[in-house]
Fold:
Amino acid sequence: MSARYQVTGATAAEISVSIESGIRRAALAPGDPLPPVRALAADLAVSPATVSRAYAELRQRGLIVTAGRHGTRVRPRPPVAARRAALRPPPAPGLRDLSQGEPDPRLLPPLGPHLAALADTASAAISYSDAGTLPEFAEAARDRLVADGVPAAELALAGGALDGIERLLGAHLRPGDAVAVEDPGWANQLDLIAALGLRPIGVPVDDDGPLVAGVAAALAAGARALIVTSRAQNPTGAALSADRAAALRTLLAGYADLLLIEDDHAAELARVPLHPLAGATTHWALIRSVSKPYGPDLRLAVLAGDETTVARVAGRSRVGAGWVSTVLQRLVLSLWRDPAVTALIDRAADSYERRRNALVDALTERGLAAHGRSGINVWVPVTDETVAATVLRDAGWLVAPGALYRTAAGPGLRITISPLDEPELPALADALTRAAHPTPPPTLTA
Structure:
């Protein structure tokens, strides 16, 4: 724990507030260790049970994590607003940042013309009673999903993929329930599960998606929900193959009450076909957001699912946010209908495919394992993440450490290819090879 910060409090609630305050003010940084229960109890002159209750409350809210002999630490990205500048130092000048996981801004469609067209055709303001999913938007979204083999009789909207996942988990699960998730998997999703007080069970992933044996083990361990990334899995680039989807469907047929969530965030950017699991269980949903193809600021996702699940999500939305802005719906619909935008998205998909495959091939030629079947990320297994990331930083490259994405999976690095230009790939591949197999320091002799 930071020497600058002293936990205070005489009750479990006060101790919890003190630690949260330290995280919020960045006096406690992500990954900082907290004192052992008995040590903190002695420092504060309270019982160990009081400190244990405080830690349990913070764990349930996703602010801290306990890892056996490694002790209790602040989560890498706790769900509390903090002073960002203190949590993440700015990259050094000239450092190529491949850590963000964002689409290439050069390949996002310009919104200006569509916003101008909306302004020219805007009708009277929509009232609370008239707001909701626009029929023309729902029809277009349904057509796009059905074309990919997704049953889409029932639809709801959410403010992005993660918002949809949160609403789905909240509609079916309660704190303490277990959720089967890909390992390594999406860091934001792991943070959300922790913040909801749910328990993740990691499922190993290969290039074709979650391993059937891993899903079976998670279900046997009591998982009440399974989250699968259909394509462009973050961070590995895995995409669910037809054979893997068929095998998972067979397995899931014996778990009718399982909540099945599919995340198809890549959508139009994917260059592999969608093999949906939709309908394999009684309660299911497939979420498709627009952020990756059309722009991160477009916070909209379409959610198709069984009647009960969609009704619960829509009902919860009505007593919360209410609806996804009809202005945003009209903007996305305008983008969908524009042939020039469709052509640009198609070029973007080709560009990502070309750059990602080129990096994987370059690493393979250098004897380095790499994964990236689809999407904008490449996953490179390494022996030591810290050493590898440091070697890369010294060479001018900033990448994301695998610890953000994994629970029990082996170490690795995530490289986002969207900022890269193809002439840069050989130099990056050389640097990654050196980082994965660093030269040991010379042995001192007498």
Observations:
- The chain is about 40% helix and 15% strand.
- Residues 84-89 have pLDDT under 50 and may be disordered.
